[in-house]
Amino acid sequence: MFPVNNIIKQNIKKDRSFVVVCSNSQEYAKNLGFCEGETFYILRGDKWSIPNSDLKDNVRIMKTTELCVCSSICAVICLGALDDFDIARSISHQLGVPLVQIHTTGMKTFAGHPFSSQMGKRPNPTVGDVNVSLLEEVSCFVEPELKKDTSGEAYMSGDAQLSINIPNVKIELEENAIPKSASVLYINTATPPEVLSKFNAILDGFTIEPYDRKSPYDTGVFIETWVGDTIIPLEIMQRGGVVFLPYSEESNVIIQDGENGFLYNDLPELHEKVRYLTEKEGLFDKIGKKAKESSIEFTCDKEYFRSAWEALFNTLQDMVSKVDGFYNR
């Protein structure tokens, strides 16, 4: 059982380390560096693009073979699904520590591409021993039933996983922001070639550039090709950019179609809405302003991010210290 009130413990425990398995959602992994006193070893995937100079001193890039030199590992944190989850689960079992699954998508949306016949999907969402959701309105698993023990303390029944919400950190806007426009469409090219070719074909005639996550500051129009992922879109919205997202539970939470961004069900609808945005005078500035205002609702400040993760880390350490190897309990 996991006592509910464990999650708000405030006792400070330092000198802890965590393994982070991450291919996508790199911006969130980078922000773990705000948790001072903790050390994060990131096992990055091939798509990792954030330069080391952007990482805090307590966030370090490493290889799987270097895990043996890491000490005081309290948990494995997974930012991703499919292969990332398999790797993270294997490492957590080897080390005998809990697995924290950070969900960029919820129960109704499994990571994937809406227009691919080759994208492998899991029959069920991947869940960890502790689950962190980025959007409060999106559930990453079915809430367990709350019960009380003989002392009256509330706990989650059975083998249910603990779940909390910790949104991404609000970005710090640049004083001299680069003016944005709808003249160039930036598209998330981290997608199978057969999917990307369909986007390029339907958007023929527009100026298209691959999105460079190293430098999102001048992105005026962003087209997301993944279903459910909101980390990059929310960063672009905070800077006044206009995003196009496939319909999903997550995109429906952050986007009011035609008000602060656009949603699309298929590629012809995407084409029609892109044409509408680029041809209607003043629409880009109007939607960009609304996007900037509305996106703040789905972020938090650095202090809340740090304190929420610190409380979770205390709980994880308690879970491990009370047993002789977490997976031997």
What does this entry look like structurally?
The protein has 329 residues and is an alpha/beta fold. The termini are close together. It has 2 domains: 4-169 and 301-328, Rossmann fold (3-Layer(aba) Sandwich), CATH 3.40.50; 185-298, 3-Layer(aba) Sandwich (Rossmann fold), CATH 3.40.50. The chain has helices at 26-31, 83-95, 193-202, 231-238, 249-254, 267-279, 283-295, 302-321, and strands at residues 16-22, 38-44, 59-62, 73-79, 99-103, 130-133, 146-148, 154-156, 162-165, 168-169, 185-187, 208-210, 221-223, 242-246, 262-264, 299-300. Helix 3 (193-202) links the parallel strand 11 (185-187) and strand 12 (208-210). A 7-stranded parallel β-sheet has the order 3-2-1-4-5-6-9. A 5-stranded parallel β-sheet has the order 12-11-13-14-15, sandwiched between helices. It has a two-stranded antiparallel sheet with strand order 7-8. It is elongated and about 60 Å long.
